[in-house]
Amino acid sequence: MSGLTEGIAAAIAYIEAHLADEVDMSEAAKRACLSGFYFQRVFHALCGQTVGEYVRSRRLTLAAQELSAHRSKVIDVALKYGYDSPDSFARAFTRFHGVSPSAAREPGARLNAVAPLAIKLTLEGGIMLEYRIAEKAQFTVTGVSRRFNAETSYQEIPKYWDEHMRGPLKDAVMGVFGICLDMEGSDFDYLIADPYQPWRDVPGGCQTRVIPAATWAVFPCVLGTLQATNTRIFSEWLPASQVWRLADAISVEFYKGPLPEERDQTPCEIWIPVARA
User: Is there a single domain that holds both residue 267 and residue 153?
Assistant: First the structure.
């Protein structure tokens, strides 16, 4: 088992030990030896669900066990597993189990359960994933940004692109880059950007950012496979690599050339900062 998967296993053990109190995501990321942003990405790629989804599923599993086995009070179980009110707990519980918390206390109630995750080595991979290692000097970009949460970023960032491409700044910022940076826990800024041109004024509503010099693992793909390629980087390439590790809390999408008629075939690259393990 690689250091990356060992780290995720340690993070899962921490989460399991704190389901009945506060799960500190920064502490879980620390156990995995990753930034909060990359912890979310690696966890999702390896485990097939977000950290938040896993925590909610496990808490609702344990809550159902307590209600059915011990006839505990609904309000006590709700508070124990992080819900501010019986109503919010009841809504989440009913969505997950298909019955209300009070019904779960009845003999013979049918309930759902999610077992604790265990990271195991399996015979996967074997499919080519092209990449190259590239040294890139510091460069500056100009663009627009929005704050996102790693839990929902796969769904929300494409919407942000669509909104930008219909908005007033679409001609000022064409969208050569998509950059994740300023990561704090599960939150990060996503910048739609172009190379900075010092002879031009920065358009209103835009900002300039300096991307530091780095060694990058560069993965070519097309727009239609960008998210799938990103998942494979964290579920296959990084866990299998004995030479490279993540070096910084930043990632870059590079869009090469104008959009073709088939938008999903737009050539692009994913850049991940790496250092020797």
Answer: yes
Query: Distance between CA 35 and CA 268 in Å, rounded?
Result: 25
Tokens of residue 16, six digits: 């399991």
pTM of the predicted protein model: 0.81
Shared domain for 186 and 272, answered yes or no, is: yes
Contact yes or no for 213/137 (Cβ under 8 A): yes
Enter the tokens of residue 193: 């950007």
Structure tokens at 3: 């250091």
Q: What is the tens place of the pLDDT at every residue in 195-247?
A: 999 999 998 999 999 999 999 999 999 988 998 899 889 888 888 888 898 98
The secondary structure of 18-51 as a DSSP string is: TTTS---HHHHHHHTTS-HHHHHHHHHHHHSS-H
Q: Which amino acid is at 165?
A: M
Distance of CA 200 to the CA centre of its chain: 35
215 phi and psi, to 5 degrees? Answer: -95, 125
